[in-house]
Amino acid sequence: MRTNARTAQLALILLPILAALGITALLILAIGRDPLELASNVWEGAFRNSRSRAGVVNFWIPLTLCGLGLAVTFTAGLWNIGIEGQMTMGAIFASGAALFIDLPAPLLIPLEIGLAMLGGMLWAAAVGMLKTRLGVNEIFGGVAFNALANVLTIYLISGPWQPAIGGSAQGTDPFPPNALLPGLSAAFPVNLLALLIVGVAVIGLLLALRGTRWGLQLKATGKNARSALLLGVPTERTALSAMLVCGALAGIAGSYRVLFTFENLRPLSSGGIGFLALLVALLVGYRVLWTPLVAFIVAALFVGSTRLQLSMQLDQSIAGVVQGVVVLLVVFANGLRERLSQWRPVPAAVNLPEAPSNLAPQNDPIKESQP
Amino acid sequence: MNDQTLNLLASIVSNATPLVIASLGETITERAGVTNLSLDGSIVLAAMAGFVAALTSGSVIIGLLVAMLVGAAVALLVAFGSIALRCDQVAVGFILTLLCADLAQFLGQEYTRQPGPTVAFWPLPVLNNLPIVGRVLFEHNALVYFSYVLIFAAWWWMFKTRAGLAHRAVGERPEAAYARGVRVNLLRYVYAAAGGALVGLAGASYSLSFKAGWTNPPVMRGDGWIALAIVIFGGWHPFRVVFGAYLFAALRTLSTSIQQDPNTQISPVLLNMLPWIFMIATLLAVSSGGLERLLRLLPRPLQRPARNLLRSNPPAALGTRFDP
User: Fold this and answer.
1) Residues of chain B contacting A144 with CB distance shorter than 8 Å
2) Does the distance separating the beta carbons of A136 and B99 come in below 8 Å?
3) Alpha helix positions (H), A81-234
4) CA gap B257, B170 in Å, rounded
5) pLDDT digit string (tens) for chain B, length 324 residues
6) Which residues pair with B141 in a beta bridge?
7) Which B residues, 52 through 81, put their C-beta within 8 Å of a C-beta on chain A?
8) Is A370 on the interface with B (CB under 8 A)?
């Protein structure tokens, strides 16, 4: 019985992933291409040499930071779709410091990262306040503030921050060397400080979510805001604090894009990483430890497929298709498992807790449960 | 009224049409208790599928039908995940938003920037000779006229027929509906598909008419979210939803036409921010916290009618599961 259940458990994790790969393979066949050739091209694109491996890590760092932040907001029952905008604001704030403040690197870099956190928190606070104080659903607040951050970027690039020569909407001037995050080596350009921040964030969040009063309050708010409030949890403040933590992490992620990956501010500098992190968070069921691992696979997939345009004249959006189908089928399989769970054994590696469903602004438990 | 104003009004009407169709479709779906959050992706996918189908078959009708099928299929996935597999509707909808957009980009990569067939211009005889109204409302194509019919059909169905009563009951009090012999989950599938088909039609109405063609990135990106917000602003009532869609289209059309006027200087930044600021403002006006604060600013006798006018209560069972 036990082994049976375990086999079923494993099957419910592996089957959806295999099925997803099968579906995308069929799609690729449908447009007349060879899925195996495509897969090997993606692998080549990600791991062909140490520079491309560094590219994967450089994608993984912001993706993991965002995924960790989302673990916090999802635990508190919030759909932080505004994470893209929070990343963008982090990028903008860091760029402001990089362009206009001239300090030695050891002083300037902490300042840039601190400002980036502030920028992300600002946008997160706006969406969070709209939600907790006024009852505007965080999904719509997030979508709007994402768009506003993008408009602000384009305004800055084509207006006050435009390059002295040849001003266009392409980006600002490259930042001076003392404003940039240094790479480890020319062969493996990855920033050590950022890796350190990821490590600290993983450990810090693991401890905070498991062992502190705040972690407990987050979980209580996420599971049932009304009863949490009746039991004395300040649900509004807890929800807002979750948004702020996520905003700060997203801000750092955004700053990494401009201070390391691009070396200037450009439109859409978040590169859709925030949305991707939402999918990662759904895939791992908002678990802190699993986030970096799954984020790495996703980062390899996305970085690997950027070369498809060159090697196979194929659009790189296939990476998004693969990822989307996998997440959809895994979420479906989780639902199926819940349905079949008369015998519910050990918690699975990928187990999606009930996601918050609070689209309707007036059915908002946090808002409604105010005395 | 001069020619310019008439043209402006007519272009507001045509610009609003995809939003009207999409937000009415979503209203139908949500009234049955299913939230199809995937609009921003399914509109894009339907637009691509409709365009490619019309281009390869040479028939606009086939393009529109294919787009409707795509929209219905995506909505059925949301309903299936929620009803049969007990998944969260918001999660499935959000995943599909991203997936559909990527799928459209991937499958449509060979078809970007190609001229394709469009829905034919068709002034309605007799009606288009009416003063003012004729020019503004009846010199368009069939999609626009369909949207007029849809407004009243949706209202009549929901509020004037017995089947519509069951439709609303499934979204408000599924237990009560079930006790009266209504097949709750079956109806949820049906209305999810019907609403989804309209969302698909809205997608095709971009690529086959109002913003004809297929580009990457797609021009209609973002409008799905706007349509979802319009449903909330419209309080899930067809007339108010349509009012929201026209209001939005008017704002958008006016601001672009003001910008094109060489005599005025309006910053394009402000222009690009406007739809989103407007979206937050409208949601704020009907949200619990925003509405109360707004009402306090009004003189007392106006408070009650204003509350009744702006109150926006979602279907009570929206986003919930029903297990008989």
Assistant:
1) 276-277, 279-280
2) no
3) 83-100, 105-132, 138-158, 192-211, 213-223, 225-230
4) 44
5) 688 889 999 999 999 999 999 999 999 999 999 999 999 999 999 999 999 999 999 999 999 999 999 999 999 999 999 999 989 999 999 999 999 999 999 999 889 888 889 998 988 888 888 888 888 999 999 999 999 999 999 999 999 999 999 999 999 999 999 999 999 999 999 999 999 999 999 999 999 998 888 988 898 889 999 999 999 999 999 999 999 999 999 998 888 888 777 777 777 777 888 889 999 998 998 888 888 888 888 888 888 888 888 888 889 999 888 887
6) B121
7) 77, 81
8) no
C-alpha distances (whole Å) from A371 to each of A234, B74, B289 are 12, 40, 14
Using an 8 Å CB-CB cutoff, list chain A residues near B77: 328
* Residues A357, B89: C-beta atoms closer than 8 Å: yes
Residues B316, B250: Cα–Cα separation, whole Å: 31
Q: Hey, which residues 8-37 in chain A have their CB within 8 Å of chain B?
A: 27, 31
Taking a C-beta distance cutoff of 8 angstroms, is the pair B316, B174 a contact?
Answer: no
For residues A145-170, b (16+ Cβ closer than 10 Å) or e, as one string?
Answer: bbbbbbbbbbbbbbeebbeeeeeeee
Backbone φ, ψ for residue B181 (5° rounding): 95, 15
pTM: 0.91
CA A280, A195, A72, A210 dihedral sign is positive
Contacts of B273 in chain A (CB under 8 A): 147-148, 151
All residues at 6 or more sequence positions from B205 whose CB lies less than 8 Å from its CB, including other chains: B17, B18, B21, B119, B143
Chain A residues 160-219 within an 8 A CB cutoff of chain B: none
Q: How far apart are CA B170 and CA A258, in angstroms?
A: 50
Q: Do A133 and B289 touch (CB under 8 A)?
A: yes
Q: Do the chains contact at B88 and A354, CB–CB below 8 Å?
A: yes
Asked if A141 and B280 come within 8 Å (Cβ–Cβ), the reply is yes
